[in-house]
Design goal:
five-stranded mixed sheet; three-stranded antiparallel sheet; D-Maltodextrin-Binding Protein, domain 2
Length: 259
């Protein structure tokens, strides 16, 4: 009887230990491995995209700066937006840095860092479109968006038919070809696009700066308080030492660190 009781207690302690180890945090494992795996699209300029040097962009450089402050190397794992967050669930990576908007639905399932950038949703149409002047005018129109993004949900909220795309560039291509009437997208992405293609026949006609669509954070699995705290400290440090300013000026021509 004592042996059975001892075996049961040993099993319970073992289970408790495993649970505590799992709940302990991903931070210790990341530091032990010397690498933090970061999920990102790689097709979303100017945040995460490829140029002649390889993977680059505002979010990519923020990820590298965070990794440096954690004392580890970044390893970027690319994936399409509609499956990007799900990759966190199956532990393909430790965090997602890809303009993931902070909202209550996501906060119920995941942990976010403090916001590291704020923008606004803009309604983009062809420059000869005079019928769409506000979000209300989207009702019954076709908007190119990634289905699970905040922008896609905003388009649906206003009664648009969402035509699924993989990212900003695909949305603009469909808009320019006349296959959709509009796209709701990130203002900073739109400004970057116009900077590189000033003659592109598109315009922004309205904006929505509600918190649900404007603030983005580093997305992590629930139950990792040490990792969240470490990422938040890293973000605070790169703003304090001027690294964030340097990165934002490089990609947007302005200092966004005061946001």
């Amino acid at each position: 009887m004592k042996r059975i009781l001892f075996a049961l207690l040993a099993g319970l302690f073992s289970l408790a230990g495993a649970t505590l180890a799992h709940a302990e945090d991903d931070l210790a494992r990341i530091k032990s491995a010397g690498t933090i795996k970061i999920g990102t699209e790689g097709t979303y300029a100017p945040f995460s995209y490829h140029d002649a040097s390889g993977l680059t962009g505002f979010d990519v450089e923020i990820g590298r700066a965070i990794a440096q402050r954690l004392g580890v190397k970044p390893e970027f794992v690319e994936g399409k937006w509609d499956g990007l967050i799900a990759g966190l669930d199956v532990r393909r990576y430790d965090a997602v840095i890809n303009q993931v908007g902070i909202n209550d639905t996501r906060k119920a399932k995941y942990d976010f860092s403090t916001p590291y950038i704020a923008s606004q949703a803009v309604l983009i149409v062809r420059d000869n479109n005079t019928a769409i002047k506000s979000f209300d005018d989207l009702k019954g129109k076709r908007s190119a968006n990634t289905l699970t993004s905040n922008f896609g949900k905003l388009a649906q909220k206003y009664g648009a038919e969402v035509v699924p795309v993989q990212g900003f560039n695909d949305a603009i291509e469909l808009l320019l070809s006349g296959r959709v009437d509009a796209t709701i997208n990130d203002n900073l992405s739109f400004l970057d696009f116009k900077k590189h293609k000033p003659d592109a026949r598109v315009k922004a006609v309205a904006s929505d700066k509600s918190a649900e669509y404007s603030e983005s954070g580093v997305l992590m699995r629930k139950g990792n308080p040490e990792l969240v705290a470490a990422v938040n400290k890293a973000l605070a440090d790169i703003k304090a030492d001027g690294t964030y300013k340097k990165i934002s000026v490089k990609y947007f021509g302005m200092d966004l660190s005061a946001q």
